[in-house]
Structure prediction request, 793 residues.
Amino acid sequence: MTFALIIISALILGCAAVAMALRNLIHSALLLIGSWAGVAAFYLWAGAEFVAFAQILIYIGAISMVVLFAVLLTRQGDAPEPVEFPSLSRFVTGLIAGGGVAGVLIGAILGMPFDVRTAQSAPALSVKELGAQLMGPHAVSLLVIGLLLTVALLGAVLLASDRRPDQPEDTP
Amino acid sequence: MIIAAIDSYLEVAPLAWRDAVVQWCPEPTQWLVHHLITIVAILAVFGTLFAFTPLAERKLLGRLQNRLGPNRSGLPWWQNGPKLWGLTQPFADAVKALTKEDIVPAAADKLLHFLAPVLIVAFSLLTFAVLPFGRHLVPVGLDAALLYFFAAGSATELAIFMAGWASRNKYSLLAAMRALAQVISYELPLILSVVPIVLIAGTLSLQDIVLAQGFWTFGFLPHWFVFTPWGFAGFLLFLVSALAESNRSPFDLPEAESELIAGHLTEYSGFKYALFFMAEYFGLTALSGLGVTLFLGGWQAPCAFLQFIPSWLWFMGKVIGMLLLFIWIRGTLLRLRIDQLTRLAWQFMVPLTLINLGNAAFWSLTAGWTGPLQLVRWGVSLAIIVIPFVLLGRRLSAGRHPRTYRYAAS
Amino acid sequence: MLGSGIINGLIVTAKNFVGSYHDPKRMVTVQYPEERAKLPENYRNFPFLITENATDPMGTLRCVACQICEKECPPQCIYIEKSKDKKPDATGKPQLYPAVFAIDTSVCMSCQICVEVCPFDAIKMDQVFEVAATDRFTGLLLDREQLAKPNSYFHEIHPTDAAEVDTRLATERQAAEEKAKAAAAAKAAAAAKAAAPKAAVKPAAEGGPTA
Prediction:
């Protein structure tokens, strides 16, 4: 079991590291998706079936498309331009931004009360129990997230549909 | 008694044979052999089905258009022998695909160009792992099987993108964008049309969903979900979304062979193209299997006294019936335009699936109604789905009806 | 209602499906190498040379090697060499004949101009379409033996056209015969006339020296 975990971690970290080193943005994005797949594999390893499949469905199925489309639609010119590497200001801003995010994440992880007992027996959580948990104690956060996403969806629809509805576009 | 014995033997025969082979293997490799046999069995059964589906499709399309369809290919080195109704056509096609030249564009991203067909076949095959093929034939009995099915299916989008981008051809890339727009648009109604089933059955496990449909009224009226108002509407919505998800006519515009060359497959030839073709049919078969499982009672027999036929035969029969229905639709309907396609998805399918979800909620809340109230339940449920269908349909076709054909001969 | 058109279409194709098994009149295709669809009479593809007599094709070619078609052919696919000697044609008149008559069917565009310009109805359009050859340099270059086909074949493929050509040729031939007869008669008459005064003159002439 530990061996599998080592392989999965190597996959996640390796994909992420190579994604940062590559100059081709599409390759980087695809490797990032590979590292998300590794995260899904990690969830499976940890026994969280539902979360693993949701990770694949949402990250690999949907968010990957957002990332790839964003890369394709924002790139100027045909060939990927080489990024200026040895620039001090770039180095410093990168360090500050990355360090900030890393600090927040590390702080959050350290602040979590980790349950050490999980190592011996991870209870297999069924989908039904998960649903009951979401609808019971966590109903408020679920509703807030749902509301947020609905507003975002409605906003996207409104932004996209500035055409008059009563003007069929296929009149000859 | 003898019939019952044969029945139960046939029911478990595939498992018995597998276990016999596994017993014969040395101890440390048993788990591997166990899974390998399952994988090989799925590959063999659905590979054969894939080989003969295009032939059946071509023959049926011919008949639907008053033609004969392929009936020539006989046996090699026996030119004047029996024609076998053209049944050896798949093998001729396979040889052709294998021996064709495999062309990779000079500017293409070689690795991704190679990976895209491999990935798309792999992902479309993964979906077969959770389908319950019979009473005892479930390759992987997952708790969240339905979610797994959609997760594996949604990963094919990545392969489409890779195919379009790695070809280094602007038409391929544009066509891949179009294909992705279609697949993403119809993923939403596809998943939403399935949610009512989860709501009523109370589970994401496909085997439990099939078991929930395993009752008969008077022994011959099956309790399949398709025979309820919300289930019938859900089945139709699922059917349309499945057609769009698997790029089938009338939604086959990603690779509309008569106007685009082949969309994102323009730069693929030889066996790589055959792999995409294969993935398309595997996806279609898997979605047919899912539709059968969710709406048509899965491996359950339609009548109680027909249960002596093994359940996996019922499942395969229903899947083949679904495939024939898809072929019939392909032989009938015209291809949509991309704007009509997305309008149908967002203005018609998504609202209807949401309304159908409410319908299923009503159905599950009124599960206790009996006697004359049962009729009220059916009436209200029908009204909930039929009235929005008529109104939305009127809005969708407003200003386009009746259509006049200026240049058509009378 | 939305969807009624789909159901109607499905019914139409279902009727086709059932009907195609028991109603042969519905079928729009034929089993090609064994069965053949009847070609329309006006279908044309590649020219051929007409011979009067099938038993002696090279002896009875209508072509007189006038080379008009060779000059008119837009893609220049006809090649003709005149004969050195003359042979009697159908009417018995001595005519030249093509020693070499070749058409390169890989160049021919089936425009029918050679047919339009031929004053002897010697070249007509064929209805062949299975013209594949294994060698594109020699297989598609047809010589006069391959091009010559009897008049009965022309009747078979273009009956109206052939009947019209035959009546015209017959009347022409008849007119020619009548003309020849008339000419012969006139000649005979003239000869007789010439002979008569001669005969009348002869004695005088004879008597001339005697006189």
Q: What stands out?
A: The two ends of chain A are 65 Å apart (CA to CA). The mean pLDDT of chain A is 81. Chains A and C do not touch (no CB pair under 8 Å).
